[in-house]
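Hi there,

I know you've been waiting on this one. I reran it after we fixed the sequence typo, so this is the corrected version. Both the input and the resulting structure follow.
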Amino acid sequence: MADQADKLRKMVEKNKKKRYRAIAVTSGKGGVGKTNIVVNVAYLLSSIGKKVVVFDADLGLANVDILLGLKSKYSLLDIVKNGKKMSEIMVSFNDNFKIIPAGSGIEEIANINEPVFAKIQDELREIVKDTDILLVDTGAGISKKVTYFLKSTDEIIVVVTPEPTSIADAYAMIKIMAVNYKKDNIKIFVNMAKNAAEAENIYNNLNKICKKFLKKEFKSVGFAINDKNLPISVKQQKILAQTNSNSGFTVSMKKLVNNLFKENIKVYENPIAKFFASIFGG
């Protein structure tokens, strides 16, 4: 009887639907560092054993695979037009970190419509059965090809920088998702700040506007200051969290992971380096 009960329990556990987290990283305007945030977070999660899939949803201008120095033979176009499966077009960064490339400069994908999006969604449902976390790197702005994906995720992280246009566009993005699509699980991440004080000020001001006009408040999931190592890693097509575990940006990404996923990745901050980083943005 004990053996039968044990077998039954294992069967139930095996057939139980696995729950994953689908998180979109987006912004009101381009150039705010979304993709760098996504790939560094994905790498850190993969390094602690999480199964992560990054979906490059910046349709028509996708570049996650290029940023990582990976060559992708296929793209989303092959799913839509050539009958490929999502599993066939994915490329691996490591055993736990996989990327779904969207393809760059492909008009058919850039001009996505409802039927195409539905087909992509169906394929994604199959992929995430073996996934802990799906990170969706969207395009910037409030076009349909962005909102398609934002509507379908559990959580949204809006990335904002100190530029006034970025702040205005971030509010526009938050407003549309909160009002038009009734999304409440929206979080804010401040990137490219000069120091912690500036990041806090940007978050507080943006949240104050949301509270005044939307009657809602949104949580901060952290910030990152300018890091001179980041553009170097981009040129080298390397992930900064992998090549420099104590870089300022890497530390910010570790804190983001710990904050967002309740993990406990150790963070070592050199107080002298932190001091000079706050002054020079290094």
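Quick highlight: The chain has a mean pLDDT of 87.

Best,
R. S.
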